[in-house]
């Protein structure tokens, strides 16, 4: 059995199933597939060591090795991750997305048939995920609103205050926001048009989240408000920055308005707390007077759900595994995903609250706090348990089509 050759032959069989970027940009609903590799996977394929050494150090180390820096400790540590996530035997990740179940099943079956032909390649993990019937996350919030627009993609920004981001922030081989070219793996054919992909499986403790709010709210209206303060948006997607006192479902459903805002006029966080999840992940114009350029830390993010939804009103955990699959794409693992995760999500120094982490997804041991600014006296939520637990993750590299063809054509002599 020639395991490296089987892997290369599998890539060759998968390439015809992939769509070029231009066909995705036309926004016609269609099934698509992405193929990405871990460092160990590239090594197993026979990528020369000189090329392997040219990848970002975070990618070479892998997410599990960087768990402590990322805040994946305690229940979220790799010791408790779902096998085989974070292990050296994870080599290739194949992700498929489709507008309906039938086309998804057809594409997955074609990939499975290709894999079956090569005994040196085993499927060791699979995760089914989907959009919940509500169209929201397991916590009940509309998601995926504040995505950056890539320069040259032909899409008008939903937030006029954020011009399109340079393509080099997301795709290797092009100028980024600094005006330079990001470090790119070699050879050029492998690195150009590739991107780093961060995969995270996050278990959500929905019942604990609901109980926490219920126990601290006088009524359902205050319960909804506290939840919105933690997230930075109402469940409909309407931002607190535009409607701080009550939900506005029409605003939340309007893509031309629900991302058109900033935080500069709310420095104290009276409308949207500076520590709210959405504001931490994307501070927008609130840091313009500081030394941080927010545009250097933007990522393309996609999230979807796994597991059954917890029925409305249920406050007790039913034992089901449910949560969110997050995928981040960018050209800089260090100053995009890792910076945002460690400096903005896990740490409260940049907002003047060094003892606080993100109220929704931040790491906690049950002693965390979250400050809600208000007049005349701020409110501080205490003893916050962890609402999200990391079940696993990987750092991957997704080559462009030319890079995939190069990988498929590797031989023992080229190593």
UniProtKB/TrEMBL annotation:
Similarity comment: family membership: Belongs to the DyP-type peroxidase family.
Protein name, UniProt field: Dyp-type peroxidase
Superkingdom of the organism of origin: Bacteria
Required cofactor(s): heme b
Keywords, sorted A to Z: Iron, Metal-binding, Oxidoreductase, Peroxidase
Basic and acidic residues composition-biased segments: 253-269
Molecular functions (GO terms): peroxidase activity
Annotated region (Disordered), positions in chain: 239-288
Residue span, DyP dimeric alpha+beta barrel domain: 30-111
Pfam families named among the record's database cross-references: DyP_N
Organism: Paractinoplanes rhizophilus
